[in-house]
Specification:
Helices cover about 25% and strands about 20% of the residues. It is built from 12 helices and 14 strands.
């Protein structure tokens, strides 16, 4: 696994990124797949990071299920079977809006551009607008599609807790392939949606070409940290409020209520809590049988991580290679939970370079 570290310096200086092959240092934000680890400092002008690079965005009420997805060849003509209509928020960004049938729900989405498909799936409680900068950037030469996930208007908002269980969420992802009429894709993911992406990519490797995650813990590593890290347990206490809320409560609380990973009050409390069988819960009653239930992801993967994230702590990166042996990890030292917003140019450049490498 390749690791990079980023941090910003005062205006007039540069950001530094450490690691890998000294031969390739000339081009900024280049990512290399060297077998042996060598250290190097790469320089990126602060002006490329955007005006908000010194002020990380830290939101309350964030979770670990953001999904940003990138993938497969597709032309706009393949959307002929899906309704497309103008929408005020979408049209201001030059995007159209449509809908698709998910696993028992209707999912609304925005789309724009032509070419290879990039599918962006947000987390809780957000919407497709989380990725405005990325949609604008990559719609220049790709087809970009960003749905509002179930539970977020104008997509359907079922009330039942079971409607937000992983098998239903995986079904929604399969429905995205129905939208695009393709059989495989490359995925980007962040926290909440990333939680879904890790599971989907592990279970259906033939449908995933590559992945990009932004502050998205792998479920197995999240479970480890929730049971053993006092710091992560403390950072995740907000989830206990969602699980104990008395109705009526927002339908998106059910993402937490349906999740087999429950946050304990402490490490000692975790020791007395039954260990959930993630594979059994994630793949029970799925419409399409998984190729594997190992939760291991072997496709090329880029993980961008804001190190100042108050809810997804850096311990989530420890031993990530056990589940993602081909992962490149880039640490953004002054980034928070939303690096795609606090450092949009840096994030976009890193993804561009990752795509170039994957296409060689």
């Amino acid at each position: 696994m390749l690791v990079a570290k980023l941090h910003t310096e005062p205006p007039g200086h540069f950001c530094t990124q450490t690691t890998w092959n000294k031969e390739e240092a000339a081009s900024p934000m280049r990512l290399y797949d060297a077998k042996e680890q060598a250290e190097l400092t790469l320089y990126i002008p602060v002006s490329l990071l955007g005006t908000r690079c010194m002020r990380p965005v830290l939101r309350p009420f964030v979770d670990r299920r953001h999904l940003l997805t990138l993938g497969a060849k597709l032309s706009i003509a393949t959307f002929a079977s899906v309704a497309i209509w103008p929408h005020s928020g979408a049209s201001q960004s030059g995007l159209g809006e449509g809908y698709a049938e998910g696993d028992g729900v209707r999912l609304c989405f925005v789309q724009g551009g032509e070419g290879q498909l990039m599918l962006f799936l947000h987390g809780v409680p957000d919407s497709w607008t989380l990725y405005t900068s990325q949609l604008a950037e990559f719609s220049r030469d790709h087809m970009v599609v960003a749905p509002n996930l179930r539970g977020f208007s104008p997509s359907d908002q079922p009330k039942a807790v079971d409607a937000y269980a992983m098998p239903r969420l995986l079904g929604d992802v399969h429905a995205c392939f129905g939208i695009s009429a393709v059989s495989s894709a490359s995925w980007w993911a962040m926290t909440g949606g990333g939680y879904i992406a890790w599971v989907f990519a592990s279970a259906y490797p033939g449908r995933v070409e590559r992945l990009v995650f932004l502050n998205a813990p792998h479920p197995a590593i999240l479970l480890r940290e929730i049971r053993n890290s006092a710091a992560q347990i403390q950072a995740s206490q907000y989830e206990r409020d969602y699980n104990s809320a008395i109705a009526p409560y927002p339908s998106w609380y059910n993402y937490y209520r349906a999740d087999p990973i429950k946050v304990p009050s402490s490490v000692s409390d975790a020791a007395h809590t039954e260990m959930p069988d993630l594979a059994a819960r994630f793949f029970a009653d799925v419409a399409e049988p998984p190729a594997t239930t190992s939760l291991r992801v072997d496709v090329p993967t880029l993980v961008l991580w804001g190190m100042q994230d108050p809810v997804c702590l850096p311990g989530q990166l420890d031993n990530l290679h056990d589940y993602a042996p081909n992962a490149i990890v880039v640490r953004i030292h002054d980034g928070g939970h939303y690096p795609m917003q606090s450092h949009p140019i840096l994030v976009n450049r890193a993804i561009r370079d990752f795509l170039r490498r994957a296409n060689r």
